[in-house]
């Protein structure tokens, strides 16, 4: 990296990057769309009525129609045997809607064949409460009345229903409806967490984007140094980024949030994990789920939280107990460490699941700062020739919205990401400086902490083992014998801490090695089919293989989710964004590969280290694919895109992705890389802003 004679040029690029972020944000805000004003007033769900399979007519009653409503949009959803929405659907062509109000003639609207939702024009003066809205469809049998959106059937779908969303006619830009959108944040939240949470969240993501540009400029211009100031600056950007998601996303609209929140509440009140099999939902959490419409929103892109207080009804009573439940099954097998930390703000605030979720999310956001610090430390060791770009790599992780979204939720993944990045740092440090007993103890402690955050942290153990074996091989002979006590210290401390926890779990809390949970149906499967599954997930299908997926799961799962899929996978970006992101992803990977080829002579002495990192990634991918195959077999899932694998399961290795990004930047040369680094950080900030705005529009638009 050249010294800093070009600070003015770097400052100019930074200012242009700020302008780029501003113009991009203005362009996003100028996009227009329909403005939602509320729904048909059903507390706990936006579903208006079931499509009766025995008849050709289904009706619902319109109530509390907003004064400004000009359109009633009908949405269709597939529901399970309990009436809970599962997936978006479309009404079949030929469906008719009738609207009958006292003293008004019946209006009929025939559903068109273009796949759009049915919209009925409303004359507010002629639509009093009690107006009946009925659907008539041509066939008997629900499966003929709707068609599922997306790919493949849903084995849990047992029925169908329709709901009503009230909108203004035409389209309006974000500039014209921003105030109304943010006004609709408050009804679905605690009284003390009104619309200010959304305003603060938007402010924080703007500060994170602009602050990221400023930190990137200071880093490449040599103003930030290579000490603690750079680490603190990157950590602040990461915390602001994750906190914005914590504030903006509606309650319980993050993966498995109700499971993890129930675990936090149980630890806060009982001081330990739940005993096996106790999956009761506490009174307070059940009321929160009903009030926030948790089950009615997730997976259904058209359903929303209550947008008006009249839609929501009274908020959950503070008198309801959150100590009378167990732990929802999805989280029962998880270790205690994250939940014990989260129980502190939960218990101190005393706000219960409805109000306490936000404070636990903010704790997770603080852990994201640790993740970013670990990434910077890893890059300083793994890429010692690029100390100024190490901070840039940390910023690119801090502004990666998919990571920030998970790190701003109630989820032990937030702690696992932090310890995972620190484990990789210690591995890189050992390759560069060697491993002594103190370093071995630190590595073993970090491995134990990662595994006790979430059992998925055990996937880091093969990574560390591969690295330690590579270190011993590199230092074979006298040096290897000197390093052996450090390796034993690492493995011994990890095993001791993990086994002590498992012993306490069995003795005090009646948990086995993997904890509780509910067993599903166990399928059989075969080794041949599993090998075919793994092959088809990552590589093109061979002619002799039975098709197991629609399309490329590698692209649809890992690459697509890296670009951004939020909420319960029901907050998505425009299709062109995924095409652009996929192209950018492979260009970055190719550029990093080209950089390694160009520097192959300098890397000859680090072949074992590179192989250790590659083997770590391969071990993660294969273990996750194995779990994905077992998930598919146990639930008897058919061909499609519904898979177990998610990109967040790879995020403990975020530091490796940051190294790929920095290597791609280095390909442009020492003169160009500093300028390009500032621009790329600006684009990452714009990506975060766009993702936050897409989330706000999805829930409150």
TrEMBL record:
Q: Where does the sequence pass through the membrane?
A: 196-218, 230-248, 358-379, 391-410, 441-472, 484-504, 580-598, 610-629, 649-668, 675-700
Q: What's a Pfam family in this record?
A: DUF2142
Q: Where in the cell is it found?
A: Cell membrane
- Keyword Cell membrane (UniProt): yes
Question: What is the protein's membrane topology class?
Answer: Multi-pass membrane protein
Task: Name its species.
Answer: Patulibacter brassicae
InterPro entries associated with the record = DUF2142_membrane (IPR018674), LipidA_mod_glycosyltrf_83 (IPR050297)
Q: What is its main location?
A: membrane
- Write down what this protein is called: DUF2142 domain-containing protein
Q: Which domain of life is it from?
A: Bacteria
Q: What's in the keyword line of the UniProt record? A: Cell membrane, Glycosyltransferase, Membrane, Transferase, Transmembrane, Transmembrane helix
Instruction: Tell whether Glycosyltransferase is among the UniProt keywords.
Output: yes
